[in-house]
Amino acid sequence: MKTKTQSPAAMLEPTGMRAARIIGVGSAGVSLLEVMNREEFTGASFVAVNTDATSLAGSTVALKIHLETKLLRGLGTGGDPERGRAIAEEQFATLKTACEGTDVIFIVAGLGGGAGSGITPVLARAARETGALVLAFVTLPFVCEGNRRQQQAQQSLEQLRAVADGVICLPCQKTFKLIDENTSVLDTFRITGELLVEGVRGVWRLLTRPGLIQIHFDDLCALVRSRHSESAFASVEASGPARSREVVEKLLNHPLLEEGRVLAESDAVLVSMVGGKELTMAEVNRVMEQINRHCEHAKVIMGATVDEAMKAHLSVTVIAAKQTGALPAVESLDNKSEFVECADTSASRMVRGRRVAADHGDGASQSGFSLEQREQALARHNSGRARKAVAKMRQAQLPLAIISKGRFDKSEPTIHKGEDLDIPTYIRRGVALN
Amino acid sequence: MFDDSSIIVGLEIGTSKVCAVVGEQGADGVLNIIGLGQARSRGVRKGEVADTAQAEEDVRNAIVEAEQMADVEIRNVYLGVTGGHIRGFNNRGVHPVVSADREISEDDVQDVIKNAKAINLPTENNVVHAIRQHFFVDGQDGVTNPVGMLGSRLEVDVHVVHGNTNRLQNAIRLVKGLQLEVDEIVFNGLASSLALLTGEQKELGALVIDIGGGTTDYVVYAGGVIRHTGVLAVGGDHVSNDLAYGLKVPLSRAEKLKLEHGSALLDEKIKGQTVTITNELGLPLKTVNVEHLQRIMSLRLEEIFQLIAQDLEQAGLYDFLRAGVFLGGGGTRIPHIAKLAEHVLQMPVSIGQTNSISGLKSALDQPEFFTAIGLVKFGSFKTGKRAGKPSLASGFKNTLRRFMQRP
What we know:
The complex is a heterodimer.
Chain A: H1 8-11, E1 20-25, H2 26-35, E2 44-50, H3 53-57, E3 63-66, H4 81-90, H5 92-99, E4 104-110, H6 114-129, E5 133-140, H7 147-163, E6 166-171, H8 185-208, E7 211-213, H9 217-224, E8 231-239, H10 243-253, H11 261-265, E9 268-275, H12 281-294, E10 299-306, E11 313-321, H13 329-342, H14 347-366, H15 371-382, H16 384-390, E12 415-416, E13 419-420, H17 425-428
Parallel strand pairs in A: 1-2, 1-4, 2-3, 4-5, 5-6, 9-10
Antiparallel strand pairs in A: 7-10, 8-11, 9-11, 12-13
Helix pairs in contact in A: 2-6, 2-8, 4-6, 5-6, 6-7, 7-13, 10-12, 13-14, 13-15, 15-16
Chain B: E1 7-13, E2 17-25, E3 31-40, E4 44-45, E5 48-49, H1 52-70, E6 76-81, E7 87-96, H2 106-117, E8 125-137, E9 140-143, E10 153-164, H3 165-176, E11 181-187, H4 188-196, H5 199-204, E12 206-211, E13 216-222, E14 225-232, H6 236-247, H7 251-261, E15 274-278, E16 284-289, H8 290-315, E17 324-328, H9 337-345, E18 349-351, H10 361-364, H11 370-387, H12 392-405
């Protein structure tokens, strides 16, 4: 019921450049704020939002918002996003005040739990209502955390996508490639956190440092909006005379990019390069040439910025997003109702919401769902109990067309950088013949 | 000696054809091609044997034809190998010179090469070639023959070509099954480059691309030595397969269409032009758009060159190719292929010629035979070296050594 500050707006004076705010939601989000190096994010203000008092108490962030009602009896949300959501709606005004007076808001959260999954979408909506651009960085839980959390995270992600300008999400499962047998649980979470923070840092640099080749925030949002349930990002650094080559090499060997395979599959790639004053156009060109070559099908947005602190270092951050084809129909129906629910505020968003909702409607009808199944799905959304029962019903994604390899059907496939060269080139490149 | 070493036979078991070339080395060392046999290949996919029985029959036919033409009995062959499993890389070997006077002897050279060959390969892989590039004496670059020089530390750069042992053995066993001895196995790309390039071109730096039926092999020479080799398991077969898929015609028909109407670049004239496929009675079956045909082909061939260009760029060899690019293999029969390659590689490209061998001139100057001719040339280098040691004892030793080396 109470916020722990006297007046949030007073504490959050915009500090030069582009006023930005980084908000951590839920226990994961709050601890991620701790990981961030404050020095690097000059000009940003930090806010921690949680329902759990202990997690907030351990945070060093100046502004903490403790969401609390009698309903929770000081126990947090208990892993139920509905509670998180309810409490956030109740405190909508508080959240909105916390978001005021800034142009860009980064939301950092771990989805899957109660607070993260419940509050984040509401917060994103509140932030948008203040007129700020909203970019969310979220993690999805490990597979071993169980089906329920997984589903809560997915659902929250869909809601978030509808209200935020951009969502970049990192499935924790992917970090398994970075760890070995002996990595402790603590370390694993630390690595995941660092990875996410790296992503935030990359985008932050992109937006704040003077650009040789500027990336507009709108570009970024257009790229990450309505894309990917999975995006991969990698950040690498190198120095020395051969740094451009080294950077590309490291990037292609990055476990999260699966040896460049992710790049080949993604359809939108954002590249942010940061170098010292002596960053040359030739270097930019060399790196981009290699990256472009690996993602021929993708829309590539690049930016190069100069940061004197980098000296002879060159750092490249790549965010690769993959279009997830047709979403499972059950989910999309869910979203539809979500969209309608939250599309009641700003006019611009209403248009967007409607458009997306219409898209989803199309998707549902195309996938040939019977009326019964739709009703079932809607019922699932409306009653909490029923949801658990039907939750397991998920439609698998089918490939669009099976491409026969003809003569090479039975021979060993010729795989080159993730591409099967036995499939006709014109199909892989998407060249239409008529 | 025990074998008639003046007869050298190169055998290439290709994806589209099996080809045996018989060469005769005269007393003056001049290599003369005296016979050629070929057969359509049916048991090979992507450069590797897929059907042993059929491949065996095809090899027998080709050998018999070559024997008849050259009027010799073939007992030994130099066998060309290729396939997607073959890789090349550069390695360096080091050897300290221990003799008191610090003079580098022949044994030191042998040792350093042995060290360079001792590489960390996966257990299932085997070295096909270890080609020496340069020696370094005490760090001094560019020594071609260090014997007799003084130094304390001898190093050598070698280019190692290696491949999967079992898959290499498949071809060797097949040939041995025909009561033929395999003198040595040779990487096809290397053989082609031997047939195509002159010493001067090797010195200047050249890229040889052999576009075969199942694979595209390429070799880069710079400064007179091999710097890079590669195999792309994509070739003419893929073009036919793409056409069959894209135009929805049977593979045999696609093959025919490729030969009759194929082009590496889109002709302006053919826009909207169509070809009618007829059955054996002359009744029309299907109409095919020539523009589509050429676009499918063009994209595939363009991709092949692009992949090679990427590989060379990664290896940092682009600036060394001052003599340009030379094409070989059946793929060079496609019209405008040199132009397409020029466009992609941004370098002068020409279709290669085997001007370094005499005999059967008109029959030989065809791109399909470059590899087999190169195999003969490879053999002539080997026998040329052997001829330098004429004594019976050393000859016997050699034979014995070769016998021991054979896997």
